[in-house]
Amino acid sequence: MGKLVVMAFMTLDGVVQGPGGPDEDREHGFAHGGWAVPHFDDALLGHVERFVRGADGLVLGRRTYEVFAATWPLAGDDDPVGSKLNRMPKYVGSRTLQGQELAWENASLLGDDVAGELIRLKRDRELQVHGSGGFVQALLRQGVVDELHLMTFPVVLGSGKRLFGSGTVPATFSVEDSVVTGKGVSAVTYTRRGGVEYGAMGPETGNW
Fold it and tell me: Which residue in 73, 82, 151, 203 has the fewest CB atoms around it within 10 Å?
């Protein structure tokens, strides 16, 4: 059975951004680019490599697509992540790119019915969403995300784009896998279970 998996690099206070560098995204005055880089080690790189190896296709928002399309084609065939990303199908959700030809190998645009297309495309395949924070929020609202693979770094920034913004649909997830690297990065896979369950806590309830 196929699934749509979101992978994100995240701070303790929920800020998400790729590990590119200081100038990767300065929108709205963001000045903390590159915050993830000091926490990378061989263990985390190996974890990312194994995760990407399981993908049958990549789903991206416009901004992340433009960043990836400008950098990953430069990777050599001996780069396990870059070579995999370059070969696999890429599906881009963007209104501003409609009508344009995408230069990155095996990349194509999703149509107006993004949720419907992704439900069809993920059948019997694992599609991975990398980065694309704003796009991910839309996918979460539409209920097409099956798993979250979050790499949470021991960093607090106080500002920046957050994975779960206002309007996020309440949901419950179960932990399928987890690991903590030597530099304190926790990589956890969460599978969507359904809606939020509620209860009461206190001596009078017997739940104490």
Answer: 203
